[in-house]
Amino acid sequence: MTESLLVDEPVVAAALDRALRTGGEFAEVFVEDKRSSSGLLDDGKVEELTSGRDRGAGIRVVVGESTGFAHTADLSEAGLLAAAEAAAAAARGGSGGVTRVDLDRTPTSPAPIETYPEAVAKATKVGLLTQADEAARSAEGNAAGSIAQVMARYGDSRRRIQVANSDGLLATDDQVKTLFSVSCVAVGDSGMQTGRESRGHTIGFELFDRYDVEELARSAAQRALTKLQARPAPSGAMPVVVGPGGGGVLFHEACGHGLEADLVAKSASVFAGRVGELVASPSVTLIDDGTMGGEWGHFAIDDEGRPAQRNVLIQDGILTDYMWDHLRARKEGRPSSGNGRRESYKHLPMVRMTNTYIANGSDTPADIIASTPNGVYVKQLGGGQVNTATGDFVFGMTEAYLITDGEIGEPLREGNLIGNGPEVLTRIDALGNDFAMGSPGTCGKDGQGVPVGDGTPTLRVESLTIGGTAA
Amino acid sequence: MSELLQLVERVAGWANDGEQIEAVGVRGGDTEVRAYDGEVESLSSAQTQGVGIRVIADQRQGFAYAGTFDIDVLEETLAEARDNATFGTPDEFLGLAEPDGVAPAELDLFDPEASRFPTDRKVDMALALERAVLAADPRITGIESAEFVDSESESAVATNTGIRAQSRETNCYLSASALAEESGETQTGFGFSVGRSPEGLDIDRAAADAAERATRLLGAVKPSTERLTVVFDPFVTAQFLGILGFTLSGEAVLKGRSMFADRLGEEVASPLITLTDDPTNVQAFTATTSDGEGLATRRNPLIEAGRLSTFVHNTYTARRSGTISTGSAVRGYSSTPTVGTMAVSLSPGDRSQAELIADIDNGLLVQGVAGLHSGVNPVSGDFSTGAEGVRIRNGAVAEPVREFTIASTIQRMLHDVQAVGSDLEWLPMAASGVSLVVSDITMSGS
């Protein structure tokens, strides 16, 4: 199937020619047309439905080590040529000359979509929100009416992109995503606690064939109610068991960012110069895989037109490769790994993760918990942050329990976990066989957010620092 | 009258009988120059534009936006917003802002020189910043980034309820992240300088701060767990104030998400704490004359000598709370207005950071925190973040420490404030920073 182009081939070719006129070595036109719709229910009311539309093109020109970039919301030939001029001027090229770019359309297969969200009645989307609200409020365990607030959010987007560059590449993709989340606030003697569930996939409205919004809502409510009974998290270093799916963000932060070639090239990564070395416990295999159909970080082509790839970053504990975008790969004379991504046509692409996960080990989750005399079991993690130069990271525990004598016990209040990426990788002393993907995430880097997925089986880190308030 | 205001007035004029329409238009341009290895790594020039349209009819609200000024597209966008409104839950408090008699402050936020500043000189500044960072200390071995960024933005709001407002600002900053290395260990530190015009930026200060922050942490060790008194560096205090601002929004209060909901007039903090939100302070990076609904911004006292005095409101939260808007609607063109503080600041004390440290026998100077978005729950008040800094021993700074967390609750920290420094500075965010001494914080290390 060949998608229609957002901008006709001759117009794109003319823009590339113009972009190279001042002597650029590489030029690229990225065209994007994005439509989105979202609905928000809060405080018992459907507050609003929002529809959005953004389209435009970003043009970059590379000369030596310098990149010039300009973008425009005007997709006419005149608009694109003006942006091409601006990008070329910014790159301040060398000799200049006349170039002819011949484009060759690369066939791509966008993810199959069963039901395009734009074809679904708004009333149906709104119905999901009210269903979730009612289910959360009537959740088992809320007999006392402790659930004080429910916020439910629906969102879908369809992002069509077209990439053309002076190497002759011309490729398109059509990326459809659907997301649903529920957050609850429970109030008790100990104050307020929150619980959240979210599901998002690179699929259409069939998301709701996979997930029951009422079940998600009850689960979010239960999470908040459970935490009302929670005691303060302990403080200090101890063994931490992370549940299936819940720990992906740990590896995203702890080592994923440090394996991005742009940071490696600036020596701003603790993993620089370590390919071929044992960097993790031999049970650890870390993969970044943009081809995982339906997952939140999936696409057919990246935002530089490169097909998505499955990249093994760490194999049996040994660092095998970094993640690459066009620019960094070009410098090294190697192909991109399909990790060149950008938030929108208004942004320059850079090296980004897609779906990042730790592959299954051989332990059973029950054995892992039973063999942990004392520690913390983390079922759900919140967001995190890493300093790639030092490897130090931090992330929040949104659902956690104390492990006492090999059994999961009392719930804990929220707190942060901190550690050092390279150290944690070597301290994984048990890896389960129950792999699961975690919640959809938005990864931020240099002010740009892109959708990413992550996953892990149950695993244990022999020692991590918990930042609670209990002594 | 600006073209942008004319455009949004035209859209607002499309209202049918019995319907309220608000159009908000935003137009901006920015330049970003990144230097690396003595070269321009990238130079981006970006133009942003868009219009958001809100419709309220039969007590229901709908919204749509488009990233263009194309009239045909805006007509479609309005139709979409109207359609969206039919699915909202009726709410008697919905309604657009109306003129409230408060005149917008006369602020000098737009520097015409800034928009004429030549690109070549922006490039030179980014390159000079990189050189200055590398030259600042022999232990600086590289940079993660050195950049110059400027922006010019204009926004306008018009409604068929009588609102017409516009504001225009220029902003620019230099920012650097330095890499320091010693004995195979690497540390990072950032520095910046902000202004309305490139002329006022201070390259040496940004470079020196980045180098100082990075080198200060070399040799840092993981501390043992204990409870102690901390001094927050101004930058850390500013981040904390941003979170505190959330808890004082009328929306959080109405929706049961604020720990301060029923506490107006009560003592919620140490008497040393006087917190004000004042977007009309021209020194604030986020200063602006008009809020997201086109009302004049104003100075709002939030906490006065420890006593909770005001929640901030937009038109909707004010009506529902039986009060008036404090001019605190916050938004871009792609969303409906929420409520928030815009430029919060603590009233400074009279002692410098060094003087504050001199009074502490056993403490910690917190230079940076990580994971604020995951480790602080503004609803429950639980506070736990990763941190790095320098130990304080016998009134002086001692060894650097890293890889630990600090934890407390927002409620307790407010009461545990022991002193506010005199070193107030405005930062590239919606809050100012000042040194803050807080007792009884749990530092978790090994």
3D architecture notes:
The complex is a heterodimer of chains A (471) and B (446). Chain A is an alpha+beta fold and 471 residues long. Chain A folds into 3 domains: 9-34 and 49-105, PmbA/TldD fold, CATH 3.30.2290; 117-158 and 170-228, 2-Layer Sandwich (PmbA/TldD fold), CATH 3.30.2290; 235-467, no CATH class. Chain A has helices at residues 9-19, 77-91, 122-137, 207-210, 213-228, 248-256, 261-265, 326-332, 365-370, 421-426; strands spanning 26-42, 45-63, 66-72, 104-105, 147-165, 169-188, 191-201, 235-242, 286-289, 310-315, 318-319, 340-341, 350-351, 355-358, 374-386, 392-404, 407-412, 415-420, 428-431, 436-437, 441-445, 448-456, 459-467. In chain A, strands 1, 2, 3, 4, 5, 6 and 7 form a 7-stranded mixed beta sheet that branches. In chain A, strands 9, 10, 11, 14, 20, 21 and 22 form a 7-stranded mixed beta sheet that branches. A 5-stranded mixed barrel of chain A has the order 8-15-16-18-23. In chain A, helix 1 (9-19) runs parallel beside helix 2 and helix 3 (122-137) packs parallel to helix 5 (213-228). Chain B is an alpha+beta fold and 446 residues long. Chain B has 2 domains: 3-216, PmbA/TldD fold; 220-446, no CATH class. Helix content of chain B is 23%, strand content 38%. Chain B contains 11 helices and 20 strands. Chain B has helices at 3-12, 71-85, 112-116, 119-135, 203-216, 234-247, 250-254, 315-321, 353-358, 372-375, 410-415, and strands spanning 19-36, 39-57, 60-66, 140-159, 164-182, 185-195, 226-232, 275-277, 300-304, 307-308, 329-330, 338-339, 344-346, 362-370, 382-393, 396-409, 417-420, 425-426, 432-433, 436-444. Chain B is globular, with a radius of gyration of 24 Å. Classes of the chains: A alpha+beta (471), B alpha+beta (446). Chains A and B meet through strand 2, strand 3, helix 2, helix 3 and strand 7 of A and strand 2, strand 3, helix 2, strand 4 and strand 6 of B.
